[in-house]
Each structure stands twice: as structure tokens, then as C-alpha cells.
Automatic annotation (TrEMBL), chain A:
UniProt xrefs under SUPFAM superfamilies: Ferredoxin reductase-like, C-terminal NADP-linked domain, Riboflavin synthase domain-like
Cofactor note: Binds 1 [2Fe-2S] cluster per subunit.
Record's keyword terms, sorted: 2Fe-2S, Iron, Iron-sulfur, Metal-binding
Biological process, per Gene Ontology: pyrimidine nucleotide biosynthetic process
Ranges that cross the membrane: none
Stretches assigned to the FAD-binding FR-type domain: 16-114
Cofactor: [2Fe-2S] cluster
A GO term for molecular function: metal ion binding
Domain of life: Bacteria
Protein name in the entry: NAD(P)H-flavin reductase
TrEMBL record, chain B:
Name of the protein in question: 4Fe-4S dicluster containing protein
Domain of life: Bacteria
Leader sequence segment: none
Xref: InterPro entries: 4Fe4S_Fe-S-bd (IPR017896), 4Fe4S_Fe_S_CS (IPR017900), Helical_ferredxn (IPR009051)
Length: 286, 376
């Protein structure tokens, strides 16, 4: 018997079932942050775009959203994710030894859309763990360097001990075709770099506002300040993109936790044009 | 060829349940349990409630004995079809790491076909809302679609809306226009106890053909039309006639939220009884070795403090921000996210709120405040 009232939905691969991955490399970034390289034990997840995230499962502990921090031009199916310990799940994930197993679903969410900056200037601003989702964007731009005019990365951390990707940063700083500004909020006397907020180098960088695409990720206050500064300098709000964080339990638009006003951030974000984000961020406790 | 519109009597309705069982359906319909009319699996047609109505008001629900044997003369009860399509708690998967590898075993999808008997027009709209949320996006929920696909829907149009009903305000009405296999309109009068049956699908047509019935006369049709038109005129509640979607977004900073918060207990009852509230959370359970894990999903509520938890604190700490989130989602941001209203006007949240908070009254207050603002 066929029922008219009931639709027949296409059966697709189960979006709720994590795919097993083995930790093949574990890199300590800072005292509380670890980058894991995860190889699928069976079939790999679909390729990711910079800015997207996966739901990472520490078996028996829980599942949390983590940005993909690896190279988007790599084709080996290995996921690279940079995780800061803040609670039970992130502790279990970062504590997984090489050879240990985790689950991953995704990739989910919107991307930075780096290619939209082609022909113009690309500015990336990352604070703290906000560097993780920006790294693939920078790697993508550098892989197609000729398409972009200036590539500027402004990176900040609380203190030198909390700077992630230190080795890579040193390599980027040696390149002539990318401007890297690193600042920390506070540092001891042996820090050779700058002690300031990320807004300071951002304010000083020469910009051609109409041809600039800016990608911002970090604490919400940092995002708001940097965006305000860029808008002040004439960068259109549609060309400023921000990556936003809310509690996420499913990653696929079903659990309702990631709402920010009209946005479901796992689906309509995490990367959102500032023109869409600003009206929501302006309301307290939205 | 069967008639598209026919009339059956009460005994044929009882027979219908047996017929559905014979077809292999699990039949769910309204039954009387513990002083409420609840949706439950029916063992046979006699399990259907009969001769009971309800008396509802904000914060109040009471079953009342009727003078007749009417089966569907009651408005929405404490649960909805959500309980059967999107269960309050379910296992999603099991994990095993005992051999050093990770094995993930998704929960087998349920294979029982369900027949829903006595779906209210508002609840039919609500099922459509859930369809869009859980099955209409890029990642259909396999558990939901397995339950939902093949559900046979028998609508009971509403001839006696309750004091807390306002489906008409939400663009629906006491008569389901489509989307059913069969639709019943009940009538008890001097001419007897009977149901006008409209056929909406081939499956419905087969069922009707197997039941004792007679062709509907023009008089039968007219009586049902009149009863349902009359019901539409007798909604117990109404939303203010404004653009609710705009009202709620424009009212984000309204002082009224603080006033509601002074009454709201943040108990989350309204979200549990709502036929469209879909939010869930997940929990992990493990055995002592930690090698065998299970991941469970259960309903959660935007009224829970930890719903918006981010390390470092919750986003919506105040009660007013949580009530604002709920009501704004229902009436406004749902459109942005899923293309329709999240409220179908069933009135459940009004009835089951322990302090009688009434979404139509809150909308009226917001409207009054908004127009005062424009006026000054
Ligand atoms: C799109 C997105 C990308 C992210 N990318 C990264 C990343 O690359 N690296 C990284 O270290 N962290 C990232 N986070 C934050 C990370 O998800 C949280 O730190 C993590 O959920 C905390 O889980 P926990 O159990 O260790 O901590 P607890 O504080 O014990 O959290 C308990 C639960 O609350 C929820 N939760 C708490 N904080 C967050 C949060 N910030 N975001 C979402 N849910 C939260 C989770 O469901 C978690 O299981 C990202 C968050 C989002 C939304
Ligand atoms: S918000 Fe209230 S009236 Fe609207 S559908 Fe939900 S429970 Fe029914
Ligand atoms: S509105 Fe009523 S039912 Fe909803 S959370 Fe507040 S007190 Fe509970
Ligand atoms: S994380 Fe579940 S809806 Fe977005």
C-alpha cells in the first residue's frame, strides 16, 4: 500500500554516524593545544573547504565541533585538527595517543571562500585558537599566490606561550609574498615581537578597502573590534567574513543548539558575512 | 471505483483499527489514560476514547464526560505525534574500541509502519514542519525518515476547537485540505453517530472500500462544511493580526521580556508539549571498561541554562533571553531557518504552562508596546 500522505525520503549515507580515524601524528602546539593528524581507517570523509569543521568523537566521552586546520590542497584524506583543552571531550581528544582512534563526521558548515578575494587583497585576522580555521585559508591562498595581490596575516595570542603553529609562522614570516604580523597581549622581556592587540597592526596596515576581503576568527570581542575597524576604514561589511561559535550538538541543522537569531551556525555558518552577523552580535544574550 | 467521499458509522471506525492491524500497521490514536486524552498504541478499536471531551484554559486541562459518544470532540492533549516520529529519547549508535579499532554501529532503523488515527489539522501542519526540519535539509535524519516514510495519516477535522486553539491565526484551520490518506469529520445528532470520510490517497481508498460505508449525500457534505466553517469562527484564541515575523524581530529589546521572565519558571514544558519543538542533545554512556559506548539523543529545551553553554559560560543566562529565544524562534526566525512558522496554533504550550503564560497574550502585549513606540 502506498500512502499519499507520507513522503518517501531518499536514503543517504547516515549523517549521524562518525567515521573511524586513527591518530597518525600528534603535535603539541602549546601547553594546552595539540594538532592531530587523523587518517581514516576505512573510507575518508569528503574533501573540506577552508573554514569548515568536523564533529570529532572521543569514543565514550562525547562529540564536539572542531575546525579543520590542515592543507586544503592535500588529497590524502588525512584530517588535521588543532584542539585546545577546555573540558572533557577536548581533553580526551588531545590525549589520544598516536595509534589511538577517534570518530569524525563532516565536513560541515560554510567556508571562507578565499577565491572570492582573487584579484584583490586578502587579510586574515586570527586570535588565539582562531588561527586553526584560518590556516587552511592561508595555505589555499599561498597555493594560488599569483591570483592575489597582497596577502596579510595578523595573528595574536594572549602571550608567546599561547601562539599556535609557531614553526609554520616562522616560515611564513620568511616569505616575501606574505605579510605576517604577530602580536601578544603580554610578554616577558625576551619576546622580540610586538605586545599589542591585533587591532593595532590591523589599523596600521595599508589597505585598499574596496578590493579587500578580510577573514576574522577569534573571541567575539576581538571579531567585533576588528570588524568595526575594517568597516571604519571603508571595507564593505559584505567583504568582511567572521567565523562564529555557538554550542553545537549535531552539526547538521537538527539539534537547534547553534542558533544565533535567524542563523543556524552549523549550516549558515560558522563563516558568516559581517553584514549578516553584526545585527545579531549587537543584541545581548541572543 | 469507491466514492471519494463517504459516510461510515462508529462501528466501522472501530473496524478500521482492525483493518489497519491486518495490514501490518501499528495504530496510534487518542485513548483515555489517567485523566488525559493521550496518543497511544491501540490494541483494538475499542481503545479509542469515546464520550469524553476536554476543558482547557491557560494552565488548565480537564477531561469531561460528554452527553454523547463522540470520539474526536477534544482538542490537543499533552503529547503530539512528535513522540512517535521524533522520540523523546533514542539510541543513535554504539561504539566499541576493545580491539584497538573503532567500530561504530548505527542504531537499526525502526521498520514498524505506523498509522496515525485522529490527526488534528494543526498537528498535520506540525508534522509538515518537522518534515522540513528533520528531513528537508541537506542531511535527512535517517531515524526520522524511517519512522515517517510510510506513515498512514487519518485526519480528524475539528468540529469543537478548544478554548486555547488558534490554528486559524496561523494560516491553518479546523479542516485539513490535503496531505492525508483519509480525513474524518464526526457528527453526532438525531440521525446518529457518523463520520464523513474524505479519501486522499489510493491507500485510503482501499481502506474505505473494505469498510461498510454509504455514499455521502449533498446534505452530509453541507453539514460537515457548516460544522467546520462554524469551528473556524469559534477559535478560543487568536494572534494579533500583525506581521508576527517582523514583530518578534523588532521586539528584541522590548521591556516586555523582563515582564514575562518574572512569571516564567523556565521549566521547558512548553517546548516538550509543542508538536514542532525539535531540539535535542546527546549523551554518552559507557560500560566500566570505557570500551563500549552508546550515544543517546534526547529532547532538550532552549529554556535549559546549559542549552547555550560555551566554555566560559552560557550565552543566554537570563530567563528573559530564553523566553525571547523560544517565542522568537516559534514565530519569526523559524521562517529564516526552515521557510515557515514554527507555531501551528495548537495551544498546547498555553494549556501545559504551569503559570498559564499564553503565547497569544504575549504577542498581543508586544504588539501593543510596539504600536505605542511608533505612536510616540
Ligand atoms: C564551528 C566551531 C569550530 C570550532 N573549532 C575549534 C577548533 O578548531 N579547536 C578548538 O580547540 N576548539 C574549537 N571549537 C570549540 C570546541 O568545540 C569546544 O571547545 C568544545 O566543544 C569543548 O568541549 P569540551 O567537552 O572539551 O568542553 P566543556 O566545556 O566540558 O563542554 C561541554 C559541552 O559544551 C559544548 N561546548 C562547550 N564549548 C563549546 C564551544 N566553544 N563551541 C561549541 N560547543 C561547545 C560541547 O557540546 C561540549 O561537549 C569550535 C567550536 C565551533 C562551534
Ligand atoms: S508554540 Fe504553542 S501553540 Fe504554537 S505549535 Fe507550539 S505548542 Fe502549539
Ligand atoms: S513559558 Fe511556561 S511552560 Fe514555557 S518554560 Fe516558561 S513556565 Fe515553563
Ligand atoms: S549544531 Fe545542531 S542545529 Fe546546528
Amino acid at each position: 500500500m502506498t500512502t499519499a500522505a507520507a513522503p518517501t525520503h531518499a536514503r543517504r549515507p547516515d549523517p549521524m554516524t562518525p567515521v573511524p580515524h586513527r591518530v597518525i601524528e600528534r603535535r603539541r602546539e602549546t601547553h594546552d593545544t595539540v594538532t592531530l593528524r587523523l587518517a581514516p581507517t576505512g573510507s575518508a570523509l569528503p574533501p573540506f573547504r577552508p573554514g569548515q569543521f568536523t564533529m570529532l568523537l572521543a569514543p565514550g566521552v562525547g562529540e564536539v565541533p572542531i575546525s579543520v586546520s590542515g592543507d586544503p590542497t592535500a588529497t590524502d584524506g588525512v584530517l588535521e585538527q588543532t584542539i585546545r583543552v577546555v573540558g572533557a571531550v577536548t581533553r580526551a581528544l588531545t590525549g589520544t595517543p598516536v595509534g589511538g582512534v577517534v570518530g569524525a563526521r563532516g565536513p560541515y558548515g560554510t567556508e571562507w571562500d578565499v577565491p572570492s578575494a582573487r584579484g584583490g587583497d586578502l587579510v586574515l585576522v586570527g586570535g588565539g585558537c582562531g588561527l586553526a580555521p584560518l590556516r587552511p585559508a592561508l595555505l589555499e591562498a599561498l597555493a594560488h599566490r599569483a591570483h592575489y595581490r597582497r596577502v596579510v596575516a595578523v595573528l595574536g595570542a594572549r602571550d608567546p606561550e599561547n601562539l599556535v603553529f609557531a614553526d609554520q609562522m616562522a616560515r611564513w614570516r620568511r616569505r616575501a609574498d606574505v605579510e605576517v604580523h604577530v602580536t601578544v597581549d603580554r610578554a616577558g622581556p625576551d619576546w622580540p615581537g610586538r605586545v599589542d592587540l591585533v587591532t593595532a597592526p590591523l589599523a596600521e596596515t595599508a589597505l585598499e578597502p574596496a578590493r579587500t576581503v578580510a577573514l576574522l576568527c577569534g573571541p567575539e570581542v576581538m571579531i567585533r573590534r576588528c570588524a568595526a575597524l575594517l568597516l571604519d576604514r571603508g571595507v564593505p561589511a559584505t567583504r568582511v567574513r567572521v567565523s562564529l561559535e555557538r554550542n553545537m550538538k549535531c552539526g547538521i541543522g537538527h539539534c537547534g543548539h547553534c542558533q544565533l537569531g535567524p542563523l543556524l551556525l552549523c549550516r549558515d555558518g560558522p563563516v558568516v558575512p559581517y553584514s549578516a552577523a553584526a545585527p545579531q552580535l549587537a543584541v545581548r544574550e541572543l | 471505483m469507491t466514492d471519494r467521499v463517504a459516510v461510515i458509522d462508529h462501528s466501522a471506525l472501530v473496524e478500521l483499527v482492525g483493518l489497519l492491524h491486518a495490514e501490518g500497521y501499528v495504530v496510534v490514536g487518542p485513548t483515555l489514560r489517567e485523566n488525559a486524552i493521550v496518543l497511544a498504541e491501540l490494541d483494538d478499536g475499542d481503545d479509542l476514547v469515546s464520550g469524553w471531551g476536554v476543558d482547557t484554559e491557560a494552565g488548565r486541562y480537564r477531561v469531561v464526560r460528554r452527553a454523547d459518544d463522540a470520539v474526536f470532540a477534544h482538542s490537543a492533549g499533552p503529547q503530539s505525534w512528535k513522540s512517535f516520529l521524533h522520540p523523546a529519547r533514542r539510541r543513535l549508535l554504539s561504539t566499541d574500541t576493545s580491539d584497538g579499532d573503532l567500530t561504530v554501529e548505527p542504531e537499526p532503523e525502526p521498520s514498524r509502519r505506523m498509522a496515525f488515527l485522529g490527526v488534528r489539522p494543526c498537528d498535520l501542519v506540525a508534522i509538515g514542519v518537522l518534515d522540513r526540519v528533520l528531513a528537508g535539509g541537506r542531511y535527512p535524519d535517517p531515524g526520522y525518515t524511517a519512522r515517517r516514510d510510510g506513515v498512514l495519516v487519518i485526519v480528524a477535522n475539528c468540529t469543537e476547537p478548544g478554548a486555547t486553539c488558534f490554528c486559524v491565526s496561523m494560516g491553518g484551520g479546523p479542516r485539513a485540505p490535503a496531505g492525508f490518506d483519509l480525513a474524518l469529520t464526526e457528527r453526532v445528532d438525531d440521525a446518529g453517530h457518523r463520520f464523513l470520510v474524505e479519501v486522499g490517497s489510493a491507500a485510503g481508498e482501499e481502506l474505505l472500500a473494505a469498510l461498510p460505508h454509504r455514499a455521502a449525500t449533498d446534505a452530509d457534505l453541507r453539514v460537515a462544511d457548516d460544522d467546520l466553517a462554524d469551528a473556524a469562527e469559534h477559535m478560543g484564541r487568536a494572534m494579533p493580526e500583525v506581521d508576527l515575523r517582523a514583530l518578534l524581530v523588532d521586539s528584541r529589546e522590548s521591556p516586555h521580556w523582563a515582564e514575562v521572565a518574572s512569571r516564567c519558571l523556565a521549566c521547558g514544558n512548553c517546548t516538550m508539549v509543542c508538536p514542532t519543538c525539535f531540539c535535542t542533545t546527546t549523551e554518552e554512556v559507557t560500560d566500566l571498561t570505557g570500551e563500549h559506548g552508546e550515544r543517546w539523543q534526547r529532547w532538550s529545551s532552549c529554556f535549559d541554562l546549559d542549552f547555550s553553554y560555551l566554555h566560559g559560560g552560557e550565552v543566554r543566562t537570563s530567563r528573559q533571553s530564553r523566553y525571547r529565544q523560544w517565542m522568537t524562534h516559534k514565530l519569526s526566525t523559524w521562517y529564516d531557518q526552515f521557510g515557515s512558522s514554527g507555531c501551528v496554533g495548537c495551544g498546547r504550550c498555553i494549556v501545559w504552562c504551569p503559570v498559564g503564560i499564553d503565547i497569544t497574550e504575549e504577542a498581543a502585549s508586544l504588539t501593543a508596546l510596539a504600536s505605542r513606540e511608533v505612536g510616540t
